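USER:
Class, as today's exercise, take the chain set out below, and explain how the chain folds.
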Amino acid sequence: MDLEAAFLQAISEQPDDDVHRLVFADWLDDHGHPARARFLREQCAARPGEEPPDDPAAVSAWREVLPPLSRMTIGWTFRRGIPEGISCGPIDATVPGAVRVVGQLVGEPAAFAVPTVREVVLDCKEVVEYDYDKHYRPLEDRGHLDADAAQVLAGLPLLDRLDRLAIRHARIPPVALETLLASPRLGRLRSLDLAGGVVPVSVARAIVDSPVAARLRVLRLPGGFFGYNRRWQPCVEGDAVAVLADAPTLAYLDVLDLAWNGLTDAEADALLRSRHLAAMLRLDVAANVIGADRVGALRRRFGTVLVRRPSPG
């Protein structure tokens, strides 16, 4: 193992300790990589909740030394100066979106080669449709993650390292989600993001009854505007909010994102009645139709309550 790989391995073993990152930055400076060194220091210096500065030159320098990604993969994501995530999909293809992006991840050796990767984002959005006249037409809709694709995903060794998993714009049947979240490889998972998907009561129950539920600190379930005509599509069905609010397994959540779901005072009341979400640090109910009095009550109960934010795509 060369010295740079040894630094990345040390960072992967203590990802929340910036000492290794800053020592690595000094080493990069001493070995002719000032852009990456600067990027590391600037990102580590950002305060919690503060957006770290962009540095395209440093990201480009990183990509020159990272394993090459296939053309079908969106790319790397960086946190505190280090490549910590990989994103797959969507791409123009006739293969169903969710099956395609799981296949991308399985066939992406770079995701397995970099020890600091702790996050995977799978965008399962359907991008094009092949019609009967042999023409492609633009389409954006949710992909379908079936039980077979979930089983493949659940068995990936990469999951051993993940603390953040996002599966966006996907219809996931309860049995498929149960299969995935029951994977013994998800022992480090702390953040689950199903943005733009479909979460009825049955899927909400699959989340709260899963082995990972009690370890989750972040649960993101926002809807948004997407599709060929940019139509609004909620993620969480109203009755599912009560399932989440009544779940003792979610007692350790720090962040719950329910933005852009068309939630009403009834769903706000379900959250207010919850005996299990008292420790939550941030509740995002932006762009719902909750009355001002309920918003005030949510703020008194939960502290930081977000009520405005741009629509996710």
Notes: Residues 252 and 279 are 6 Å apart (CA to CA). The chain has three domains: 1-59, 66-157, 190-313. The chain has a mean pLDDT of 85.
